[in-house]
Structure formats: structure tokens, C-alpha cells
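Internal QA ticket QA-208
Title: Verify multi-chain structure generation after dependency bump
Assignee: T.L.

Test input:
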Amino acid sequence: MSATFAALGEFGDAISFIFTERENQRGSPVGGAENLPLLWEHLKLTAAAMALALVIALPLGLVLGHTGRFSFLAISTSNVGRAVPSVALIALFIAFFPRSPEFLNVTLALALLAIPPILTNAYVGVRQTDRDAVDAARGMGLSGAQIIRQIELPLALPLIFGGIKTSTVNVIATATIAPLVGVVTLGDPLVAASVYGREGQIGASIIVAVLAILAEVGLSAVQRAVTPDGIKLARGPEDRARTRFGLSKRRIQTAP
Amino acid sequence: MSLALFAQLELRDRENQPPSCVERNGFCPDWIADNWERYKTPLIEHIELTLISVAIGFVIAFSLALIAHRRRWLIPPITQITGILYTLPSVALFFLLLPLTGRGKTTAIIALVAYSLLIIFRNVITGLDEVPEEARDAGRGMGLTPRQLLWRVELPLALPAIMAGLRIAVTTTVGLTALVFLAGAGGLGEAIFADTQFRSNVVVAGGLCVVLAVVLDLTVLGVQKLITPWTRGVAT
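Actual output:
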């Protein structure tokens, strides 16, 4: 086992850091099971930020899409959101709310980061639902709320999930820099190389990368499970490969 | 003796004065005007890294898209691979590249290029796919070879979509470049984290990132309008 690690050079050391505990230069334990609290904090932060973003952005996007109002707002938030660097956002919260707990500050910053893709995709998804289907539903006497829940939401699901995936991966990636402001996530070994060593830096990077890819693949599986059959049938294999990474053809048109 | 007294007086005098803007940690235009110089190098580094990365990313993604345009079966695998590169957090990539390229600008640029590939690739492909079949037919009818058709008909018509991809790539890269200080490549992110507690610093360095993103975005848009005169006056 350790011979294989040695053959991989520094990557081998990094993989061994992921699985086995060791003492660092200061004599405190790092690596192996010591990574679990970092992972837990990372997941907690991601879940908190995503939950907050979903609660705000999803209903707002659905309602705005349903009414067709404020399209400028719904579209331009994601353009503005792209331009604001995540680091600056986190630093702003820390600088302007020095007394509130770091975890709360970072959660708020990450949630702000996660809102634009969800909002824009929910809006565009609902706007692009088949108007005939909506008219038919209205003709059958469904109320506005029923139309959103039973017609527009299911038909917009692929796009909505595209937005959720983009945001989740983004939040997982950005949570890596949270240790710079005192929230000890998996990014801690990256920014505190003196404590964890180089194998810790690389090892934690591997964990973060795997986490991001797992989130992408996992959410794609959920997306396939909840997408109505009618929408799946209407697509070819080429399109499916695109949507696996949340890149349906239609989403590109949200570009300015 | 008198000197010590004088010093004491001065000290007391300073205590009585209201705390300066910097001490109160406010937003201080004076401090910003005095310290403007310290943002110059990070800003230039930021612009450099962004432009180099987007340029390399564009060349690679554009070539891949042209190859895949002819050989359709290549689209899914290229999308998958660039998709994985897009999903990999760039911060993680900085450190995963450590054993290969070390710390510094090379590592930063590789990670930023990796991130931009998918954005540009998918927009070029989409742009080419959305060229009306009639336009292609007309081109063929005029006797254009496939190569001429691509450069004279398909690519010009795909330009708005391609440029839209470039705009997304530029703005996201500006944001990501704020993280390259973790790879030891400087940029405005380093200025932000030099002092996260000081509001003026965070506002200026963060603000410069946003301004840079907007300026580059508008520049690409301007170039787009310039090279696609036929889209002017048409709602996009």
C-alpha cells in the first residue's frame, strides 16, 4: 500500500494524508480522521448557504417568471453576480460586520453568491415553458399558484437544477477560502501550509475536487430522476451530454 | 524635561482629537487618495493574468469547437472533459498543480484557462448550430467549399453567440483571478486579504475587481458591435 503511494510521488503523500493520521512538525495530529471535522464544517457551510439561497431565489424566480415582470432584474442579477469576486464579497461581510460570528458572515456571503444562478435559471425556465400548456391549465380552472406548482415548476426543472448545480459547485469551491476569515473548512490545509505541510495542501485539494464533482454528478442524478418523461423524450443524446454539466442549449441565451 | 513635557502634551492633544477616519475603520476617501499607488501593481497583475488566460482559453476552445463542428461525435466527450475541468474548484486546482508547475503565474494561468474552456466551447458550438440552414444552402449554392462556408458564412453568423461566451469567460475570469494569490500569483485578491478588517481597503480592491469586469465586458461588447455591423439596431 505505502509502496504504491511512494510511486506516485507527492500525489502519493497527499493521498496518504487523506487516509492516515500523522503528527505535524508541531506535534499535533493532522490528516486521516482529523480531516473529518474540516469536511463536516465544509458541508455545514455549503448546506447553510445553499438552503438560504434556495429559500430566497427559487420562489422569487418562479413568481417573477410566472408574472413575467422585472425580467431585467432576474436576468441582470446573474451578470452582476459574475462580476463580483467571491473573495471580495466575503471580505466585505467581515469588514462591515466585524461583530457578527464568522460562520454567519461567510454563510451570508456564499448565499449571495449562490442566488443569481438559481434566480435567473428559475426565471428563464418558467418563461420558456410551453405557453399552450399554461393556457390549457388556466382553461381547466387552475389558479396561479397551482399553475406554478403543477405545470411551470415541473417543466422548468431541468433549468432550475442547472442553476442549483452551478451554485452548489460554486459554493463548495468558495467555501475553501473560508479559513482565511476564521471558518475552518477543508480549505484550512490549503491556506495553512505551515500546519499541514504540502501533502496536506494537495490532499485537501483532492478532497475538495472530489466533493465538487460528487455534488455535480449527484445533483444530475436527482435532476434526471425528477425530470418529467416528456421532456426527456424530446431530447437527443448530444443534448443529454450537455445537460449533465448543467449546460442545456437554452441556458446559454441568458447571456447578455 | 521640557521635551518630555512637550511630548506628553502632544500625546494628550492627540487623545482629545476625534479618532481619524482610518482609526474608526470607515470608508476614507483621503486614505484611498493617499494610498492609490499600492493597488497599481496588483491591478496590473490582475489584468495581465485575466487577459492571458482568456486569450489562451479562447484559442484552445475555439480550435476544439471547429474540430468538433465537423466531427459531431467529438462534442459529447469534449463537453464532458471540459465540464470536469469547469467543475473542479480552481482553488483546488492551484494546489493540485503544485507538484507539476509549482507556485506562481504558470499554475494560475493553467487553472484559469481550464475553467474558461467549457464556457467558450459551448458558445461557439451553439453559435455554429444556430446558423440557419438556408444560409448554408445559399453559400453552397454559390459554390463555397466547406472551409469557405465556415469562415465566410457560419462563423460570422455565429459571432454574437461566440462573443457572448467570451463576455461570460472574461467576467468570470476576473472574479477567479481574485483567488490566484493562493497560488502565489498576486492580483487584487492579495490586496483584499492584506487587510480584510479595513473597510477602505476591501472596498477599493473589491471595487477595482468589479470595475475591471465591467470595463472588459463592455470592451468585448464594443468589439462585437464593431465586427458585426449587421446586428446593430436589431434587438438582441
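Spot checks passed. Chain B is about 75% helix and 0% strand.
Status: verified.
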